[in-house]
Specification:
By secondary structure, this protein is of the alpha/beta class. The protein is elongated and about 65 Å long. InterPro entries: RraA/RraA-like, RraA/RraA-like_sf.
């Protein structure tokens, strides 16, 4: 198992408060997970430390095995190759909550969505699917998975909300937090200027400039 620097709870909470879009833009890093990962159920926000899981298509044994390794504050981040199966449902949700798991992000399907909503467990999935799964793939949790353009390693910070999901490298978490706070402050200033009557063209310096020698009417 690869050792990653631990992100403390205060940093984790502060990153979750900033939101996925602000963190992506402020980081300057390719940390966004695929847009097909959408919130399922009532909870639209998620923040925790990544516990990566690689699963064969149509097999959810790795998710059961991963829960044995899960610690309070973890988020299972599962690459199930977008499989159209119900890898996760009410039973695994209750098992995860008992272990203090903060949520699930899965490129694959989930089911029992009404029960998940009632339990208030944050889930981001690429599909809702009722087809069952086999239980033969004995990999469990792994050091890293790749979702879209982003490599997610054990201990990275996962933040999800209605806009999307990001995975912040653990060793960049404090730096991204500072950049995110600065961006949040700047955007608050932009909103004040907009309410005062300025245009986005001027605030963001977007007005086209004429090249030397061009006629200006």
């Amino acid at each position: 198992m690869t050792t990653r620097p631990a992100v403390d709870d205060d940093v984790l909470t502060a990153l979750g408060d900033l939101g996925s879009a602000t963190l992506l833009e402020a980081s300057g890093l390719p940390i966004d997970l695929p847009s097909r990962l959408r919130p399922v159920g009532a909870r639209l926000t998620l923040a925790g430390r990544a516990l990566p899981v690689q699963a064969a298509e149509g097999d959810n044994l790795p998710l059961h095995l991963a829960l044995e390794q899960a610690r309070a504050g973890d988020v299972l981040v599962v690459n199930a190759a977008g499989g159209d199966h119900g890898y996760w449902g009410e039973v695994l949700t209750v098992a995860a909550q008992v272990r203090g798991v903060h949520g699930l992000v899965i490129d694959g399907g989930v089911r029992d969505t009404e029960a998940i909503a009632e339990l208030g467990f944050p889930v981001f999935a690429s599909a809702i699917a009722i087809r069952g799964t086999s239980k033969r793939d004995a990999r469990g949790a792994v050091d890293e998975v790749v979702l879209g353009r982003t490599r997610v390693r054990r201990g990275d910070v996962i933040v999800g909300d209605a806009d999307g999901v990001v995975a912040i490298p653990a060793d960049r978490a404090v730096r991204v937090l500072a950049a995110g706070r600065a961006r949040q402050t700047a955007e608050a200033g932009y909103l004040d200027r907009l309410r005062a009557g300025e245009l986005t063209l001027d605030i963001y310096d977007l007005r086209p400039t004429t090249e030397s020698g061009d006629d200006v009417d």
